[in-house]
Design a protein that fits this description.
This is Toxin-antitoxin system, toxin component, RelE family. With about 120 residues, the chain is an alpha+beta fold. It has one domain. The chain contains three helices and four strands; from the N terminus they run H-H-E-E-E-E-H. It has a four-stranded antiparallel beta sheet with strand order 1-2-3-4, with helices on both faces. Strand 3 and strand 4 form a beta hairpin. The longest helix has about 35 residues. The relative contact order is 0.16.
């Protein structure tokens, strides 16, 4: 998970955390096979593998953006509540998720390059 996702999660209330953890466990157990209604592909991302966990918590739609990296690990990128922000939600969240995933991939690539040179 990214620092952006961690900050959102840490600031969330206990009920939200419980709903999110349940979805995270589902993602861990099902991996790339998890699909609707629990997960869906995000349209408009620069990454074809960008997805969202679709969480309902106390009647409110939460969306947790994630992608599988080159190691096939799901990386939780960012999250938010769509209530009251439905029209602009994806306009804000998709670029943020793309930025977070690009940074993760760059960091992963740099780390792998260092490990390759050391071996």
């Amino acid at each position: 998970m990214t620092d952006t996702f961690d900050a959102w999660f840490t600031a969330s209330d206990d009920a939200t955390k419980s709903c999110v953890i349940a979805s995270m466990v589902l993602l861990k157990n099902r991996g790339p096979l998890l699909n609707r209604p629990y997960a869906d592909t995000v349209k408009g991302s620069q990454y074809a593998n960008m997805k969202e966990l679709r969480v309902q918590c106390r009647g409110e739609p939460l969306r947790l953006f994630f992608a599988f990296d080159i190691r096939r690990c799901a990386i939780l990128l960012c999250a938010g509540n769509k209530v009251g922000n439905e029209k602009r939600f994806y306009d804000v969240m998709i670029p943020l998720a793309d930025k977070e995933f690009a940074a993760h991939l760059k960091q992963l690539t740099e780390k792998e390059q260092i490990e390759w040179v050391e071996h």
